[in-house]
Design goal:
Helix content is 91%, strand content 0%. The chain is an all-alpha fold. The protein has one domain.
């Protein structure tokens, strides 16, 4: 869980100074430039979404494992009686 948080922090550190500095200083001379800017923003959003979703999937798997162990221990207690 801490490694995904560290990856998020590194990703944000890379995005803020490099991307936004370039995006703010970019001169839009043709309509395609605006499409490139929009596409790059969409790719950054996708990257952040994927890092966020992988963190939640890891937590869900951990909870499922805990539930299975809890159910197995309850079932073994009932069979022992």
């Amino acid at each position: 869980m801490t490694s995904t948080r560290l990856a998020k922090v590194i990703l944000m550190i890379l995005i803020v100074p490099f991307f936004f500095e370039q995006a703010l200083n970019m001169k839009l001379t043709a309509p395609i430039d605006l499409l490139y800017l929009g596409g790059s923003i969409a790719l950054i959003a996708l990257a952040l979404y994927l890092t966020h979703s992988t963190e939640h999937k890891g937590q869900e798997k951990k909870l499922e494992g805990e539930r299975e162990r809890g159910l197995l221990s309850v079932a073994s207690r009932n069979n022992g009686n």
